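chain below, 116 aa
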Amino acid sequence: MVGHIGYVNQHSPHNAPLSYADYPDLIDSILQTAVGAGKGIEVNTTGYYKYGEPMPAPDTIRRFLELGGEIITVGSDAHFKNVVGAKYGEAVGLLKTLGAKYVCTFEKMKPVFHKI
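prediction:
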C-alpha cells in the first residue's frame, strides 16, 4: 500500500490540497510504481475536514484507476476513538463515482476485495 500520498498537504503553505495537475509526472511515477508492483493506495478521510475531499485528491484517485489500479483501502487516520471510520461512507461513494469497483480490507497482508 502507498499511504498518505496527500500528506504533503499537511505542510503546504497553500490552503489547498495537492492536485494531480500540480505534479502529474511525479504523481504518475508514484502511481505507476504502485500499480506495477501490484500495490494499492490508501484514501484517507482526514482531508474532508480541511479541504472537503479525501487525500489524495479525487483527480489523483481517478488517475490511479486509469493506470489500472484496483487495490484501494479507506482509512480515517484515527488518533481518537470517536473518529474511527469517520467519513467512510462519503469516501466510498466518491470512489464509486470515480469508477472504482472495490474497496479493500486485508487479511494476512492479502487484499480482500469488497464490491461497492
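The chain has a mean pLDDT of 90. The longest helix spans residues 24-36.
thats it, cya
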